[in-house]
Amino acid sequence: MPQSPLLALIFMAVAGVAIALQAPINSALGRSIDSSLAAAAISFGVGFAALLALVALGGEAGGIARVATLPKWLLLGGALGAFYVWAALWSVAILGVLTSITVLILGQMVAALLLDYIGAFGLVARDLSPTRVVAALLVAGGVILSRY
């Protein structure tokens, strides 16, 4: 796939729409089966099946075979994703979609500021500039405005 910043921006915008849709759909699933944890498991199962099909169709099944050779901490992403799916589907019924997504973005921004600053996981370190901090503070204001 080409390394295009425009394409990356488009994909992330579409992913943002997907996250906004995913939370209330999964919340409805949880209410339908009376279990937020089971709903999260079902959601992950469907996602796993979809990704497995794409891996097979893309001829990248060899990547799955290499999982046994990886440092185990690299597998934490799946657990973090599972927590996100459960937390979102549980929280959206309480907070609503707007506040849930806004506070999600705030959490992402705070973590991203830190991860960028320290250059975590082999990323290029980026300055903790006042502009970037203000961006996070503006989202924090958005959390307050979305709720009250």
Automatic annotation (TrEMBL):
<dbReference type="InterPro" id="IPR006750">
    <property type="entry name" value="YdcZ"/>
</dbReference>
<feature type="transmembrane region" description="Helical">
    <location>
        <begin position="101"/>
        <end position="124"/>
    </location>
</feature>
<dbReference type="GO" id="GO:0005886">
    <property type="term" value="C:plasma membrane"/>
</dbReference>
<keyword id="KW-1133">Transmembrane helix</keyword>
<keyword id="KW-0472">Membrane</keyword>
<dbReference type="Pfam" id="PF04657">
    <property type="entry name" value="DMT_YdcZ"/>
</dbReference>
<protein>
    <recommendedName>
        <fullName>Inner membrane protein YdcZ</fullName>
    </recommendedName>
</protein>
<keyword id="KW-0812">Transmembrane</keyword>
<feature type="transmembrane region" description="Helical">
    <location>
        <begin position="73"/>
        <end position="95"/>
    </location>
</feature>
<feature type="transmembrane region" description="Helical">
    <location>
        <begin position="38"/>
        <end position="61"/>
    </location>
</feature>
